[in-house]
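Notebook, bench 3.
Goal today: get a predicted structure for TetR family transcriptional regulator from Actinomadura rubrobrunea so we can plan the truncation constructs. The sequence was checked against the plasmid map this morning, with no discrepancies at the termini. Length recorded as 202 residues. Pasting the sequence as submitted so the record is complete.
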Amino acid sequence: MTVRSRGRPRAFDRDAALEKALVEFWRHGYEATSVSALTAAMGIRPPSLYAAFGDKRTLFGACVRRYQERHGALVRRALAEEPTAERAIGRMLRDLAADYTDPSHPPGCLIITATASHGPESAEVAEELRAMRLATRRSIADRIAADVRAGLLPADTDVDGLAAFFAATMQGMSRQAQDGATRDDLERIADLAMRAWPSAES
């Protein structure tokens, strides 16, 4: 007589489920993504979602962290690894042109678009993403300011204005990607934006 092991049922793949949730939020935005849509995409039932990730808000936070680890790293690496701010920001924009149009995931940037349209109930989420965007802009400003201190840019360079311009370029490129722009289209935008770079001459 064969005795079957009763045991516990095999757990779902948490990492794969999180990736599917990320795609749902990325494609539709935070507010428009329902729990039922998430569970359908993740292949689990609501009790499993709540047990593994908490509520929708907590799940979204986990997806944002995953996004930042993978896609947000493009900006961090460019700003940290290049020898000048000009090269760092030029690389950042080119890398984003590729990432925003990568067919393996939804177009654009989750941090820029996930709460582009939201109601009062999503205000806290929107503010958190806004804080992330502002942190990126500050990182750009810090990189430019370092070149001013090093004498690579004029002392009167408008550091904050230049950082805001490139942050706006990033946001515009994300929107363009969602509207169907190709990588070549976004690279042309990046090239044109870099023409705004101040001359090293004082």
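Residues 124 and 130 are 10 Å apart (CA to CA). The two ends are 90 Å apart (CA to CA).
Flagging this for group meeting.
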